[in-house]
Every structure is written in C-alpha cells, then in structure tokens.
Design goal:
This is PEP-CTERM motif protein. The protein has about 750 residues and is mostly beta strands. The chain contains no helices and 78 strands.
C-alpha cells in the first residue's frame, strides 16, 4: 500500500507529493510532514537498453526484468531513449528524463505514483489514469501526450520549480475519453487541443491552484468542465487566433487571469458565457480577449477587472458591469465595444494606456477624479461617454487620442477635461456635449494632430464645448448636431490656415476674434453665429449652401473677403442680429434673406447683387466701398451712405418695400455699369418703394448728368428711375424750344 502525504513550502502554491513506505520520517525545515504507515514499497526499475534497445516488454532492456504488469509494484524509469510499447501494461509510475519517448500501439495504465518528467518528453501510446490521485510532477519542459487519455481518476499537474512546465494533450476526439478531474498547481500548464478536455455528459472540473489551462493551435472546447479557482487563482489562455468556449462556469476564491499570446495575433478569445461566481477578480493580460456576455461573466458582482499587456474586454452583448473597478496597469488594456454598450459604474484607475475601439459605446458613470492617469485612445467610431470627473486629472497631464471617427462625449452632465490634451489622428475624431451640458476645463488643454476635429451636440440643446486652449491641429473643424463651439481666440479652432465647416451647429463668440486666413463652409444643415456682444471677423472665404442664422444676442459677424461664395439663405433672428459682408455668392447672391425685426442690420461694404426674393424687414445699409444691385427684393429699408454705389443693369430692378434713403451726394456717377453706350430709355433702379429722391444729385432733367457722346442721364421718382436720353439738355433760356416737339421716352423695366 502506498503512503500519501502533503508537503507545504511557504511562499509557493501547495505542491502535492507522494512518498514510499520507506520514507516514514523526513527531516524538513520548511514544514511538517505527517505520513500514515504504508504496507507496500515501490521499486524503481531503470531502462538500460541492454536488450534489443527499443522494446518495453523485453526484460533485457531493464537489467533483467521489465517492470511488473500491475499498479503497485514498480516505477518505470526512462533515461532518454525511445521505447516501444505494443501491448497493454500497468505500472505504478513513470519517470522520464529529458528527451525520453514512450511510443507504440500499446496502452500504459499508471498507478498512484503517477508520472515524473524532467524535461521535454513524449508519451505516444494510450495512457490510462484510474487512480483517485494521480500526479504528474514536472520539473521543466513539456510532457507531450500524443496518444489517447483514458480513465476516470483524478490528474494533478504539479510545478516542481521550473518555469511553465507543461502537459500537452494532443489527441483530438469529439469527446474526451478521460472523465476524471484535473488540478493544475503553481506554474504548471495544461495545454489541450480542441476536444481533448470536452465532456458532453458534463460533471468534470478543472481546479486551478495557480496553474494554467491553455488552447494550442486550435479552438478549445471546455464543455462539461467547470473551472474552480483556489485562493492562488489561475489562468485560462487562448492561443493566437483560437477561442476557448463551451459554456463552462468559473467558481472559487481566486483571481481569474485571461491571457493571450503577445507574440502572435490576438484575434483569439475567451468566451465567458457561464454564470460565474469566483470572488478574486479578473485579470486580462498578454493580448488576452475576454468576451463578456453578462456581468456574471466576470464573477461575483463588484469584483475588479484588471487589464495589462494589451488585455481586452470584448463586448459580446450590451452589459452593465455595475460598480466593478477597472484597473489599467502599465502594459495597457483595451475595450472592444463591438457595436454594443458597456456600462462601467466603478472607478477607473491605473497609469497604462487604454484603447477603446469597435463602433459601440463605453459608458462611464462613476463621478471620480484623478484616479486614472494613462492615455486614452478612441478609435474606429467607438464612443466614450464620460461622467463629469471620470477622466479629469488633478495634476499632471495625459492624452486623449481620437482617430478614425472615435468620439469622446459628455454623459448627461458637464464634463471636465482638466489635464487632458487631445491628439487627432489623420482621420480625425469627435467631441460631443450632451443635452444642456458643457465640456470645460480646457484652458490648459491643447488639441493637436493632423486630423479634423468634429464638435457635436444633440439637437435643441444648450450645451457647449469651451475651446479655451491654444490649439494646433491642422485638419480643420466641423461643427454638427447642434454643437455649440465657444471660441476664445483664433487658436481655439486650430491652425490659422485650417477651415471650419458648420453643418447644423453653432459658433459662439466668447471674445472678439479675427480669423485672418480661415475659410468657413456652411453645409446643408446650416449654421448659427452667436456673437454675444462680440465681433467675429472672417477674412477667409465664406462659402456653402446652408442657412446662415445670425442670433439675436448683439455683436456682429463680419465677412471681409471680396471673394465670398456663400449662396445659402440668411436669417436674422432678432433686433440684435447684425451681419456685415464684403461679398456674397461670388458676386451674385441668389439666396433668400429673412428676419421680421426692423432692428436687425445687414451691412454691405463691397459689391453684392441681390438676385433672390427676400422677406427681410430689417435695415440694409451700405458703407465704404459698398455697392448693391440685382434683380431681387427686400422688404425692409435700404440706406446708401456717401460714397457707396448702385450697380446698374438695363434688365434688373431691385425691389425694396421699405424706406430707401440715398445720401444727398448720390448721383449718376455713383452708378456702376452705366455709360454713353447705355440705350435710351427709362430704367427703374429701385422698385416698390414709396420713397422720393428730390434731394439727390442729378434729380430731374434740369440736373442731368452728361454721359458723353451726346448722351445724358437723370433721376426721377416713380420708385427710383433713371432716364437716359440722346436729346440735348436745354439751357434755361431755351425752354421755348421744347415747343418744337418732344421725344417719346421708352420706359424700360424688367417687371410687368
């Protein structure tokens, strides 16, 4: 009878050992061994190869007699050869030194002394374990079991001091032939092909006491085997692009480590589909990818998840993981949102880099601060929605990298970016405020990089993004979805030569800002400029087809480029709306101008031809080099100050329903486009108005302007008309000559 005892070495996981009946007293300094008295001792029989050199059954290879064919008598010791077994044999134990191989068509059943291996060795025969406690003690290397494993006993894989000693099960059937339980201790590794561990009938367990179960070169099916963690925890490892699956449940008191293989592709995964109850927390490392199906995927509620060395949380479903703390260690981690929503109510801490990918949403609801100091990268249209202080820093700085459409969003509250700089990849990223909430704390934030920054909101909200930093990004700015971009300086919107595109968003002037070279594009969703009692000056080209709204909050928008191409509609929101333009529409503006408050102001300082029919009831005023004309209409008033011009066309009339005021110095020489080549006739320059113009120059035939070449022109009422005639202007003493005849004048006007 064998005697079984246990040796405990402080500082390492418990290591199970067996002792012969001869070892009743063992002097130990590290612990105490209590041994029951046994009645039978095992004799070691050592291979010497003196017979035929290959055959297990040949006693000449064993110094006279082969190991006894029973489970109690002998331990067979191999010293490096390849030994062939062609029959079914029993033996109490097998000892292998490095390089030993037991091969052949036979089957070896191992008794209570189990297997001892000291290096890379192979069992190519079938092997049977029926003992309740069969140990495989490894002092190094890999024990490859390429034959089929049978039996219903228990197998314990012990680490006896080497680094990652491994038992590798190669035989791959649809269902395992071994129905007993496995225990893996210390640094021991149980590596398995796809179905080597599968039990379709269920009932099996794998206990990890610091040990590892690993897939090898294929997917690994753990169906029918639950995993139990001792207080020393254990590791489940998938191999490169291979998966560990099977609906297994994990229980126990230890920490579960999920590992991949950093040296290869990390596309493999650990499918945590069971209702797991382990209490020691979860560690995802070395490119491991943990697929989360529910909060219970990660054990007991509230236990932590630690990521390191590229470990990945993969959202297989929409999951709220409650108050679990997330620790990102120095090697970094990743959330793959996979078009799903993962809600994290616990605190994120650590200093490693955190990547968020996958076109879904990571929702951070804990309002903590200064606990996570690593860089955050949001990529591939993934969204991070953060609570007020969830990623702010009390001291120091770290980056938020946005690329390929990655989005950082406030989550139903104000959102503090203190201590965080933003770096834009070439494909750019998104900052989004939520509802009536603000993104702030950006006084020290620098936004840099080559990508476009998209500022987004949600429709009909009053939130804002406060761009207080001196930003250097070069990819331009896009303002969409009701976003309100607060500009504090020209640098608020990045490099001075980059453009701003607004498509359903707002520009809010928090300071007087001159954009010296920046182009603005207003797309179909339109733009609202909220000048906030400030002046926003744009010297770049202003273009686009969307509606431009000038908010009712004082201040003014000044468009000073003579080549502006903007052709969209313009809306004045109230009495305090003011727009100053040098040009529109590339010279001819066909958009509609609206606004019902007479106090709103539309100032023109360059040439603008109004070709659209507008309902604007405010004041249209010309200053400096201003010139107006066109075939359109406005319903408000029109004022031409001294030195401003009217653009004459034989075929165009500008209709003005309100009051028209012309400076008393206005004369024919202030008409652009008239000459001695203009055909004789009466032209209506400004129609519909009831204003009279008796006080301007060249009013009436007596004050006609000489166009040269026998032509003259003068103004008359009837709105504002211009009469061009080849008839000589009579001198005061020659009025009698008018009796000689008259010249029929043709009234030329576009409208009938």
């Amino acid at each position: 009878m064998e005697i079984v005892g246990f040796l405990k070495i402080e500082g390492k996981a418990p290591v199970r050992k067996r002792f012969s009946a001869l070892a009743l007293f063992v002097p130990l300094t590290l612990g105490v061994v209590l041994l029951p008295v046994g009645l039978h001792a095992q004799t070691t029989v050592t291979w010497d190869g003196a017979g035929d050199g290959t055959t297990y059954e040949d006693g000449g290879n064993w110094g006279g007699s082969a190991p006894a064919d029973d489970l109690t008598t002998n331990i067979a010791e191999f010293t490096g050869p390849t030994v062939d077994l062609s029959s079914t044999r029993q033996v109490n134990g097998l000892n292998f030194s490095s390089g030993s191989t037991l091969s052949g068509s036979g089957n070896i059943e191992v008794g209570s002394s189990g297997i001892v291996a000291g290096g890379d060795s192979t069992i190519g025969t079938g092997v049977t374990f029926n003992q309740s406690n069969s140990d495989i003690n490894l002092s190094g290397g890999t024990l490859d079991i390429t034959g089929q494993v049978f039996g219903s006993g228990d197998i314990t894989i012990n680490d006896t001091g080497a680094s990652d000693p491994t038992v590798h099960l190669h035989f791959n059937t649809n269902d395992a032939s071994f129905t007993g339980d496995y225990t893996v201790i210390g640094d021991g590794v149980l590596r398995s092909e796809r179905h080597s561990l599968r039990l379709s009938a269920g009932g099996g367990t794998i206990t990890l006491d610091g040990g590892t179960v690993s897939a090898d070169g294929d997917h690994l099916d753990l169906s029918g085997r639950d995993v139990v963690l001792t207080s020393n925890g254990g590791t489940l490892q998938h191999a490169h692009a291979r998966n560990v699956f099977g609906g297994y449940a994990v229980s126990g008191a230890g920490e579960l480590t999920i590992s991949g293989e950093l040296s290869t592709s990390t596309a493999g995964r650990m499918q945590l589909q069971g209702t797991n109850t382990y209490t020691g927390g979860t560690r995802i490392v070395n490119g491991g990818q943990a697929w989360a199906y529910s909060d219970a995927s990660f054990g007991a509620a509230g236990t932590s998840i630690t990521m390191d060395s590229g470990g990945t949380y993969y959202a297989a479903n929409n999951v709220d993981i409650g108050t679990r703390a997330i620790i990102v260690e120095s090697g970094g981690g990743r959330f793959n949102t996979n078009n799903k929503t993962t809600t994290v109510g616990g605190v994120i801490s650590g200093s490693g880099a955190l990547d968020v990918v996958g076109s879904g949403t990571l929702l951070l609801t804990a309002d903590s601060t200064a606990t996570y100091t690593g860089d955050i990268s949001i990529d591939g249209n993934a969204v991070v929605k953060a609570a007020r202080n969830s990623i702010a820093l009390d001291s120091g700085s770290a980056n938020i990298n946005l690329s390929n459409g990655g989005e950082l969003s406030a989550n139903a509250d104000h959102f503090d970016l203190t201590g965080r700089n933003i770096v834009l990849g070439e494909a750019g990223g998104v900052l989004r405020h939520a509802h009536a909430r603000n993104i702030y704390g950006m006084g020290g934030t620098v936004i840099s990089g080559a990508g476009e920054l998209t500022l987004a909101g949600s429709s009909s909200d009053a939130g804002r993004i406060q761009l207080q930093g001196t930003n250097t990004y070069t990819g331009g700015t896009r303002i969409i979805d009701g976003a309100q971009a607060w500009a504090y300086s020209e640098a608020s919107l990045g490099d001075v030569n980059s453009s701003v595109t607004i498509d359903g968003g707002d520009y809010f002037a928090n300071s007087n800002v001159i954009h010296s070279a920046r182009d603005f594009i207003i797309e179909s969703g339109g733009a609202e400029f909220k000048n906030n009692d400030k002046t926003t000056t744009i010297d770049g080209v202003f273009s686009g087809t969307g509606t431009l709204t000038i908010a009712d909050n004082s201040g003014q928008l000044r468009l000073r480029n003579a080549g502006n191409l903007f052709s969209g509609d313009i809306e004045f929101a109230g009495a305090d709306s003011k727009l100053v333009v040098k040009s529109l529409g590339g010279g001819s503006y066909g958009g509609s101008i609206s606004g019902i408050d007479p106090g709103s102001i539309f100032d023109i300082t360059g040439t603008v031809l109004l070709e659209g029919d507008s309902t604007f009831l405010g004041q249209t005023r010309l200053f400096g080099d201003g010139a107006i004309g066109g075939n359109g209409s406005i319903d408000g008033s029109l004022l031409l100050n001294a030195g401003t011009k009217f653009v004459f066309s034989e075929t165009s009339t500008l209709d003005v329903a309100g009051t028209v005021t012309l400076d008393n110095t206005f004369g024919v020489d202030d008409l652009v486009g008239i000459s001695s080549g203009t055909a004789d006739g009466t032209y209506t320059l400004i129609g519909e108005t009831a204003s009279v113009f008796d006080n301007i120059e060249n009013f009436g035939v007596a004050n006609a302007f000489d166009l040269g070449s026998g032509k003259s022109a003068y103004f008359q009422n009837g709105s504002l008309q211009l009469v061009v005639s080849a008839v000589a202007v009579p001198e005061p003493g020659s009025l009698a000559m008018l009796g000689l005849g008259c010249v029929a004048l043709v009234v030329r006007r576009r409208r009938f």
